Amino acid sequence: MASSFTSNEPRIVIVGAGFAGLAAATTLVKSGLKNVVILEAMDYVGGRTHTVRPFGANIIEMGATWIHGQTNNPLYQLAKSQGLLAEEGFHMTSCQPGMVSPEHYFFTEHGERLPKEEVQKVSAFFAALITRIMGQSFKADYSSWSLGDFLDQEFLASGLSEPGGVDLVFEWCKRIECVDEAVNSMYEFALSQLGLYTRLDGPFFNCLGPKGYQAIVDVLVETLPSTNLRLGKPVKCIQWAGSSEKDGNGAEPSKKDTGGTIQWTNSSGMDSGGTMQWEGSSQKDAGGTIQWTNSSGMDSGGTMQSAGSSEKDSGGTMQWAGSSKKGSGGTMQWEGSSEKDADGAHHPVRVVCDDGEEYHADHTIVTVSLGCLKERAQTMFKPLLPHGKMEAIARLGFGTVAKIFLEFEEPFWPEDCTGIQLLWEKGPEDKEVYNTHKEEDNWTSDWFKKIGGFDRVARHQSVLCGWITGLAAEHMETLPEAEIGETCVR
Ligand SMILES: Cc1cc2nc3c(=O)[nH]c(=O)nc-3n(C[C@H](O)[C@H](O)[C@H](O)COP(=O)(O)OP(=O)(O)OC[C@H]3O[C@@H](n4cnc5c(N)ncnc54)[C@H](O)[C@@H]3O)c2cc1C
């Protein structure tokens, strides 16, 4: 067992050192709970914020770039108080429908540059439409509508539509909206959900200074004792004490435990349950007797026989018979350890890493992404998380968003150009194209069409950044870098 814990205070293991994990750790430490260990799978801290320097001294952000909104935004406040925001006047965004300017160059696939007036009349309409939808609540008739279908309906009704003309700009707007909403397609995003996003007041694209997001990560890490952070420690399994919480369908979670404290609700449902402290019944776990007092006051306590196996730590079954008429007793399965830790205490949570190292704790906070949970939750938690949580993990969705950075020997674009946006005759966010791709599963040859465009990257002379979403992004991630690069510049 690894011992990074420093005192006899409650031990807490946080899984994941992205912003959620760092925020949890710093909050606990600030409130006096210093016995905290963070286990991070990767060899760096920050998770989906990742500041790197592949193109010389200046940074690029592989993940998050901006702090969105200012009012009541703790991240913004932290960055401001530490002097980590970009210098006055510094401004950088990707090209957004609501911000199209003459410096954004829009090209069709035939190499024609679209006049800015053509672009702006559609992009301004699109931005206003999104703002309207965000503030609108939709009647039941729209409950099954996708955002894409609604946008198409409104665009058609606007009279702006011009097949082969500004319609290309409208399709581009939908591609960019996929990035903003982190969804795979506008046709896979429920119309009714857009308004659920709470946008914090103040400027939306707040930029960080020359050290980027890494500077905020560093500030947070500095507040943690150095022994608390363990990198390269993927967690394989969390054996935990179960919970008294009822899950989504009202069913009780299982009652497995590794030793320590169990919250239980008596099987009769008439007894309000209570807390039981137990120490493995003997050093050899050969079974024993536990006296308990029920917290409900209705049950006057009783005797429990535990039929533990003779092997150490192998768990077992307990039969109990509540002594009152109201608590009818029940059965509890446990995978208990009879061993005490070096500090002489029992810690009910056992966090096991891929390399076999174990951390015994009193609490754990798991901050891994929904994607990781979808992949690993079935094997990660013992017992399984309550049914409602497993159901949520299975049914919640998310989209893929990725960036592509291209470095050139020198810029090939004019000085005033802030980026090149791509317009396609048959773009992937055209409903017909979307349906065909879906039915025929034939989108892989056209994956690059999901890229919105390439924006210039701040603090770099000759680097462009493209954004891509959905299955196209996932496909791109399987391709060799050289092939991606060649496709982007051909
Ligand atoms: C390309 C891109 C651009 C983005 N741009 C912005 C932006 O400009 N502004 C913004 O606000 N947001 C942006 N986001 C979103 C933002 O990055 C995330 O919302 C945020 O970083 C999530 O933090 P988190 O701590 O919840 O999760 P994560 O950052 O994913 O942290 C989870 C951590 O858990 C670790 N982990 C996973 N499994 C295990 C395991 N088994 N054992 C141990 N550790 C494990 C992971 O390695 C990771 O470090 C962007 C995201 C992407 C992908």
TrEMBL record:
One annotated GO molecular function: polyamine oxidase activity
Entry-linked InterPro entries: Amino_oxidase (IPR002937), FAD/NAD-bd_sf (IPR036188), Flavin_monoamine_oxidase (IPR050281)
Domain of life: Eukaryota
Annotated segments matching region Disordered: 242-346
Assigned keywords, A-Z: FAD, Flavoprotein
Ranges of Polar residues composition bias in the record: 260-309, 316-326
Compositionally biased region (Basic and acidic residues): 244-258, 337-346
Translocase recorded as keyword: no
Cofactor requirements of the protein: FAD
Residue ranges of every copy of the Amine oxidase domain listed in the record: 19-245, 342-489
A Pfam family reported for this protein in Swiss-Prot or TrEMBL: Amino_oxidase
Protein name, UniProt field: Amine oxidase domain-containing protein
Protein species of origin: Pleurodeles waltl
